[in-house]
Amino acid sequence: MNRQYVSLKSLVITLIVTCLSLASLISATIAAQPETIEIYGNWPASGPDKAAYDTLQTYLRMYEEKNPHVRFEDLGREHSSSKVLNLLITGTAPGLIALGNTHVLRFAADGLLSEVPEHFAALMHENLFPAAVEGSTLFGKVVSVPTLNNISTLYYNRRVLAESGLSPVPPTTLSELEEAGIKTTRRAADGSVERIGLQLSTNWHESRFLQLLFWNHGAEFVDADGKLTVDTQPVRQMIDRLLEWNRTFLGRLSSSIFASGNAAFSHAASGFMESYRQRYPLDFYEDIGAGPTPAGPAGRVEYQFSNGYAVPRGPHEEEVWKFLEWLYFSNDGPGGMTPQGHIFLVRGVPPLHRGDVGAMLSSDPDLAPYYSAFVNNISVARNSDSYFVENGIDEGALHDLARNVYGGMAPEQAIEAMAANLRSFMAENSIRRR
């Protein structure tokens, strides 16, 4: 064989081996580089949620230590549904999004999200409070993951009640609330209100409170077949009660009244407690208590509210579901809590995971009575997100109803206007009709 040919052949073989080795080295180097996953982590990096944001960052770093092939970049909070929708449609969404849960449910109905793994959904049913799972479910299937656990709460001022000759305990029925609200309201000689009986903090809290009155009077928007059912006696009873309250003891849309000590009651969410605690000028723990929403003619009910996590379709979805499973169901938080339970603890809202309740109740003896009230309330709570999305119900319907009757519209006319608006809204938005 020609020596020159042998030499050339050897050179070619050497080059091939070198190239293969170099390719293997490059592949190994690439494989060693951590996978970077961008997320919308739900919590803003400033304001009242900063502690929750910082705690989430701690757990992101902990997960990275346990899984060196992953790196997370938290882009903060993005609650523009139109922006997130555009990202989903164009395939440029982060690996995890957090958004108002009704938006997440609609995106799931449109097939824009990764499906919740069956074993993850089973863990949710097994471990989370039922109301939280209810809000993440469409037509019996879990499609989102709750990111918050805000529970309706009646805050009450023991000092104001005692000064009014009342027992410093929360009312248990709407009739008791009416009696206490009227007795604690104080007006000046010119008729202006010096102290109010019941204060609703914001438009959002008023809408949610109206939803509870709707339910605990026995009303529903639709029947089992999805047919509109709002022109009923329970709705008329609710309106009569609202008109009387608005005339006598109901103060709306100003959290500063209760925070300053000039209201007997405030109906708000569990997440509002920290705001009241920081602003109350006297002894918060001595004066302010937390209890259930008073029961109506149809019984007692509370609301549970949450934003929703969702995993967009894409190359990171399997890893993101692994992270969420660790965040929600591992015991790597303090005292054996879940990491997500610890995040909720620093934010001052009750846990989603029933196994985290004990650790929260023992975390601070001063706050334990408030946490206990929150947990008691979630045991009878409903989450209306899936109910509204499935049936295409306008979340602002009751708010508009109240505005109309407060403004002097006859109750029958106000109900008729609400029904007409709901029919139009449902025809366009109900996913039952798809």
Name its key features.
434 residues, 15 strands, alpha/beta, D-Maltodextrin-Binding Protein, domain 2, 8-stranded mixed beta sheet, 3-stranded antiparallel beta sheet, 2 domains, 50% helix
Describe the model:
With 434 residues, this protein is α/β, with parallel strands linked by helices. It folds into 2 domains: 35-149 and 306-363, Periplasmic binding protein-like II (D-Maltodextrin-Binding Protein, domain 2); 152-304 and 392-429, D-Maltodextrin-Binding Protein, domain 2. The protein is 50% helix and 14% strand. The protein is built from 20 helices and 15 strands. Strands 7, 8, 9, 10, 11, 12, 13 and 15 form an 8-stranded mixed β-sheet that branches. A 3-stranded antiparallel β-sheet has the order 3-14-6. The protein starts with a helix and ends in a 5-residue tail after the last helix. The model is unreliable at 15-31 (pLDDT under 50).
